[in-house]
Write a structure and sequence with these properties.
single chain, 383 residues, alpha/beta, 10-stranded mixed β-sheet, 16 helices, 10 strands
Length: 383
């Protein structure tokens, strides 16, 4: 058995969504890589990601044989990121994309239509082609450095949350209310589908269905990790303290469209995770009342441990400081929709793929992980 399989075979990593906010995950992982022995495999046998977290998850899975190298690769990408590597941001292509979308809305029903969106994320597909070697995932699964990788997307066709998984073992598909797990060979289309933020990025067709951001309809974000065999779930979330630049209590004005849109995105990316964690705690408490011999006799009854690392500072407040790093064409486009550098809105914090902003989130994640070093070491058996 490898170092990973002996000590970490039940450890699962769960990475949530959030656009540019996913840079925070890299900071946390960077700190953990300092806790782990050098040149050893990743301390998680199961990796599950949603939205931008799906991209980070797949990047880690490619280098599961050497955790520190995988984290360094991710960190290099995020620290050198620009908006133009994620979506077209120059005026000519931004507004021509919008113009083509308007013209396409007048096409007849029998015409071969493409997905509509506010932004064109074709550069993201090119970036994934450059930096993700999917063949390495197969190799790591075969060599035992990784047990399973899962990427979750939401079907616009059926309304179901679909977790596409690739595993070294024979794991049966699962079918529950509004969620499924399907084995497949994960590729860039799965990542683009999982990270397709509603309206902002185009949907992706997989098979006969159209898919969007995996956080939509994801009623149970912890489900894929548990179905794949995880019993200790390490979760990097996006639940953050509110740090408005001006007090809300005495604000006489109604919420702006930017504030409302931000609340909707926050609900998509964070609320279901908190509900799922509360439900898990209740199940664990119920299981603790059942005698051990009955648990053994009833297959599938097991307690699940969790450790959640959430940011200690507000991403929105940080994004406001870097608002003017966003390309002017994107600022103008968002301004026409009533979205500006409003600290009460989170839209900017999702779309600000700027290296200085991402660097600050990575630094925050690193510091938060250091402050929880003892808990992390004990939970992941990194003595």
């Amino acid at each position: 058995m490898t170092y990973r399989s002996r000590q970490h075979e039940k450890n699962a990593l769960v990475l949530t969504g959030g656009g540019a906010r996913a840079a925070y995950q890299v900071g946390v992982l960077s700190a953990i890589s300092k806790f782990a022995p050098r040149h050893h495999p990743i301390p998680f046998s199961i990796i599950c990601g949603t939205s931008a977290g799906a991209i980070n998850s797949t990047g880690l899975a490619c280098y599961a044989s050497c955790f520190q190298l995988g984290v360094k690769k991710l960190e290099w990408v995020w620290k050198n990121l620009t908006t133009s590597r994620i979506y077209h941001s120059d005026p000519a292509r931004v507004f021509s994309h919008l113009y083509r979308g308007i013209l396409a809305s007048f096409q007849a029903d029998y015409a071969n239509k493409s997905a509509h969106s506010l932004l064109n994320n074709a550069p993201l597909r090119a970036l994934l082609t450059d930096v993700v070697d999917f063949q390495r995932i197969d190799n790591n699964l075969l060599k035992g450095h990784l047990r399973a990788l899962s990427v979750t997307a939401s079907s616009y066709s059926s309304g179901d949350s679909i977790s596409f998984f690739q595993s070294s073992e024979t794991i049966s598909p699962w079918f529950r209310a509004k969620r499924k797990g399907l084995p497949c060979q994960i590729n860039s289309d799965h990542l683009l589908a999982s990270a397709a933020i509603p309206l902002l990025f185009p949907s992706i067709k997989l098979g006969k269905e159209h898919f969007g951001d995996g956080s939509i309809h994801q009623l149970s974000p912890l489900s894929p990790a548990i179905h794949l065999g995880g019993e200790k779930l390490f979760i990097i979330g996006v639940e953050q303290p509110s740090e408005p630049l001006h007090p809300k209590e005495n604000n006489p004005h109604p919420p702006t469209s930017a504030t409302i849109a931000g609340h909707l995105l926050d609900g998509i990316f964070s609320d279901t995770l908190q509900s799922d964690l509360e439900r898990l705690k209740r199940v664990n408490k119920t299981l603790s009342l059942i005698p051990e011999e009955k648990k053994i006799a009833q297959e599938g009854l097991k307690s699940i441990e969790t450790l959640v690392i959430n940011p200690s500072h507000d991403f929105n407040a940080i994004a406001v400081e870097h608002y003017h790093q966003m390309p002017i064409s994107i600022r103008l486009l968002l301004r026409t929709m009533g979205i500006s550098n409003d600290p009460e809105s989170s839209i900017i914090s999702y779309l600000l793929f700027d290296r200085t902003y991402c660097h600050q989130l990575i630094k925050l994640g690193f510091q938060d992980a250091l402050e929880n070093e003892t808990r992390i070491r004990e939970f992941l058996s990194l003595k």
